[in-house]
Amino acid sequence: MDTQALWLTLKLATVTTALLLCVAVPLSWWLAFGKARWKVVIEAIATLPLILPPTVLGFYLLVLLGPRTSFGRFWIHLTGHPLAFSFKGLVIGSMIYSLPFAVQPVTTGFLGIGPEILDAARLLGASALRTLYAVLLPLTRRSLFSAAILCFAHTVGEFGVVLMIGGDIPGATRTLSISIYDQVQDFRYAQANHTAFFLLMIALIALTAVSSMRKQASRG
Amino acid sequence: MAEEALLQARITHHIGGLHLEAQFHLSAAWTILFGPSGAGKSTVLRILAGLMTPENGRILLRNRLLLDTAHRVSVPPGHRGIGFLTQQPALFPHMSVRKNIGFGLVRVPQKERESRVQEMLSLFRIESLADRMPSRLSGGEYQRVALARSLAPRPALLLLDEPFTGLDGALKASILEDLSSWLSKSQTAVLYVSHDLVEAFQTKAEVLLLEQGRIQAQGDPSVVLAQKREQLLRQLTAAQ
């Protein structure tokens, strides 16, 4: 197996999962408890990566992160190099691509908490922040774990977005799924088989963990 | 509105088919908000507690302005000096009894917080349950803990929305006894929602009669509820 690609994949999945949870918690809070009428639009946008072809998402991100947009130019002005074809670019792409896998379980977890619990926290003078960390997060820890596992596994297996934004640069943007593609192109089927089996196991373990957590949650 | 009153309220609100238009004051230590189901009792309590904002309203507690919709003033719940115990109070399921009771005391210094929690545990005779989780409490124990949690921040007014429904008579009497003991020590007044005529007479509290969203009468139960009592007696006699 391509160990360089393995470490890069694990690094990408870890960073993406950590950052995505930081984004998903406040976004899910707003989606679950916000009163804005247009939140359905944001909800749809946050779900879009589930049905959008990864190449479409990758194409738009490539354009957005490149030097043709003001954001891309601003980034180059700030750092001296473009986001596209870099690890940071991959992280941004992966975060957008895996967004629904973080937002949906966390939002469902928040919605599952009875309004009387939230009323109790408000009546006892808890601020929104304290309600979040002292009440909501502990009560939705299983949803948070599910979100983390799904994001990690989904990022490990992503191909289209990574290829579009990152290309195939060894050590910088070549992940395991790109590595399989290269191995097949080079007729190295035995190596491709090892890599594919590894990715299959990660996906299977992740789904087993999520399913077991759901069963535990339903048992109370 | 009476200036010496503990609480003065004027509320106008539409919710579902109910048009609530209530103006009242509280002066007694115990007041029963009496009325049939759907009269708007729970809505009044939710508005007083700050969980709902009425279309129009003005609320003062001990001459402190809590709500004035005309001037966009609304003190958030938890900062109003009002405790609220609903029919189905929710303890935080991931916290022990001790932590639940201490939850509303975050702004109280650590030492005082601990002694306040201990005081509540002792007052409601639940010291032995201090480290127990809510899922392992009986119905009566659960209500005692919820009551202790509502009273721990020492509210000026406690709102009770039929919280003891479903408990047997002896248990309810025992909890009410503990509550009365606390009220005699503290200066907490109670607004107690009920649609039980016998209960209204038993507690000898002042009664606010709410029907179809309007306060119809306020005063001693023997006067305010005389007509309803006669009606009930007639029904019982006819049934015999």
CATH architecture of chain A: Orthogonal Bundle
Computed structural class of chain B: alpha/beta
- Structural class given helices, strands, pairing of chain A? mainly alpha
Return the CATH class of chain A: Mainly Alpha
**What's the CATH topology label of chain A?**
MetI-like fold
Task: Give the tally of β-strands of chain A.
Answer: 0
The CATH level-2 architecture of chain B is identified as: 3-Layer(aba) Sandwich
Order of adjacent strands in the largest pleated sheet of chain B: 7-8-9-3-10-11
Description:
The complex is a heterodimer of chains A (220) and B (240). Chain A is built from eleven helices and no strands. Chain A is mostly helical and 220 residues long. Chain A has one domain (3-219): MetI-like (MetI-like fold, Orthogonal Bundle). The longest helix of chain A has 31 residues, at 3-33. Chain A is globular. Chain B has 240 residues and is an alpha/beta fold. Chain B has a single domain, classed as Rossmann fold, CATH 3.40.50. Chain B is built from eight helices and eleven strands. In chain B, α4 (139-151) runs parallel beside α5. The N and C termini of chain B lie far apart (45 Å). The chains are: A mainly alpha (220), B alpha/beta (240). The A-B interface holds A 114, 116-117, 119-126, 130, 134-135, 138-139, 220 and B 49-51, 76-79, 82-84, 86, 88-94, 103-104, 106-107, 135, 149-150, 153.
Strand and helix layout:
The complex is a heterodimer of chains A (220) and B (240).
Chain A lengths: L2 H31 L5 H9 L6 H12 L4 H10 L7 H25 L3 H9 L4 H12 L1 H17 L2 H7 L9 H10 L3 H31 L1
Helix pairs in contact in A: 1-5, 1-8, 3-9, 5-8, 5-9, 8-11, 10-11
Chain B lengths: L6 E9 L2 E9 L3 E5 L6 H9 L6 E6 L2 E5 L4 E2 L7 E4 L11 H6 L7 H14 L15 H13 L5 E5 L7 H17 L3 E6 L2 H7 L2 E6 L2 E6 L1 H4 L1 H14 L1
Parallel strand pairs in B: 3-9, 3-10, 7-8, 8-9
Antiparallel strand pairs in B: 1-2, 1-4, 4-5, 5-6, 10-11
